[in-house]
Fold this sequence. Notes:
Layout: E1 4-13, E2 16-26, E3 31-35, H1 42-50, E4 57-62, E5 68-71, H2 83-89, H3 92-110, H4 115-130, H5 136-146, H6 162-176, E6 180-184, H7 192-205, E7 208-212, E8 224-227, E9 232-233
Parallel strand pairs: 3-7, 3-8, 5-6, 6-7
Antiparallel strand pairs: 1-2, 1-4, 8-9
Amino acid sequence: xxxxxxxxxxxxxxxxxxxxxxxxxxxxxxxxxxxxxxxxxxxxxxxxxxxxxxxxxxxxxxxxxxxxxxxxxxxxxxxxxxxxxxxxxxxxxxxxxxxxxxxxxxxxxxxxxxxxxxxxxxxxxxxxxxxxxxxxxxxxxxxxxxxxxxxxxxxxxxxxxxxxxxxxxxxxxxxxxxxxxxxxxxxxxxxxxxxxxxxxxxxxxxxxxxxxxxxxxxxxxxxxxxxxxxxxxx
Length: 234
Ligand SMILES: Nc1ncnc2c1ncn2[C@@H]1O[C@H](COP(=O)(O)OP(=O)(O)OP(=O)(O)O)[C@@H](O)[C@H]1O
Ligand SMILES: [Mg+2]
């Protein structure tokens, strides 16, 4: 079964028909790049796949309990956040889970036969494993270094340049380790060094990945290519 399945999707804005019966699916572990002209509906399709945009007709089926995260073409941040806070903003749930895990561990040391607590402990442990989130503080540090954001960590995120803001969004997304990563033109504004770094990271991390790219230089050897006219190349 596909991890995301879009069936016969129709979408229009006012009188403009954008998607007219589009079928699209992505399987676990697959990497797909969407290519197409400006205005052909790539971002619209991705937002629908992410569950962020309503459509007029068709069906969106996703596997149960999967986490899908999307990098928007234009990054948005809550007002007033520093770079570090913006990176951490997507990690609150994982941080809370880790805190709860520590509390439960301490409680279970005294109350080790409490079945409800044991069950919750095991569930949180699985969740933290799944997201590789045991040492989040170390990971945040490493990611700030790798994305060359350390020197800006206390600076308001809205003061950063386009490429720097994109690095903040990417850093935060990758730390969340979602099941499916949707990236709308991730290499926009990035310099050559960062594009190479991102390529390596994406290839190493085995994400189920859908990305939109105009960038002919990005190399993804085992990506399938989907064109907005509906053709697919493996
Ligand atoms: N909220 C909106 N209201 C009205 N029209 C919209 C809206 N969002 C997108 N459109 C229009 O829908 C069309 C498809 O937009 P979309 O952003 O999906 O294109 P795209 O393929 O991602 O383009 P690009 O390569 O420039 O990013 C465009 O003509 C755009 O102007
Ligand atoms: Mg777009």
